[in-house]
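User: Before I run my own analysis I want an independent prediction to cross-check against. Here's the chain; please return only the structure tokens and, at the end, one sentence I can use as a sanity check.
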Amino acid sequence: MSETRPLLVVGAGIAGVTAALEAAETGAEVVLVEREPSIGGRVMRIHNYFPKYCPPSCGMEINPRRLERNPRIRVMTSTRVTGAEQQAEGWTVELTTDPAWITAACTACGDCADACTTEVADPFNLGLKQVKAVRLPHLNAWPKRYILDRDAVDDAEAKAIADACSYNAVDLEAEASVETIEVSSVVLATGWRPYSLDNLTDLGGGLDNVIANVQMERMASHEGPTGGKIQCPSNGEAPKRVAFVQCAGSRDVNHLPY
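Assistant: Structure tokens:
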């Protein structure tokens, strides 16, 4: 990294990745921070998007190659901003990176997953299916590296997972790390999260077959939990009638005022 203070971009969804790449391609040094283990954010969970009606991979696939080719960008996944103080020439920022239970030595061969028997709710598919506690975050994940939900497996299973790896990429002694960096300025691209249906009981939130639009997107995806089939969560059958409620919770003084 040069003596010039880098630009910090917080959030590696499509907005953050675009900001980081375009800044770096005009000559700036950039640190791109993402709290998830892979980049892409919410857009990677969408089935098809406007105006091409193509899956998000066709819009994101070039960006990992651009990130890999550009020496001005440092990408830090599984990392959060845990402190920030403004200085005369920018910001002093504290970054905390989660333990790397599976290191960069991972080749995504899948042997560790074969040794794993524990399943957890899949966060990428919004809990609509179960996945192995050690897995690739999703099909188009970058970095292409397996992750381990260490709290979900006992010590015996964790050791079996580590022993199954021929590349010594499983580090059961991993710890969180903290780094302080000096940056010139900060771009916040932290995105959004779905509003909880539990707060919308008047519209059926909490009932078995009431889902959010983001869950519908995952069902519609051929790579999603149902293989592209829209079905009722209660029984797995195709719905006969569907009602859509738009903008639920937004611009409402009882929920979200924006």
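Sanity check: The chain has a mean pLDDT of 94.
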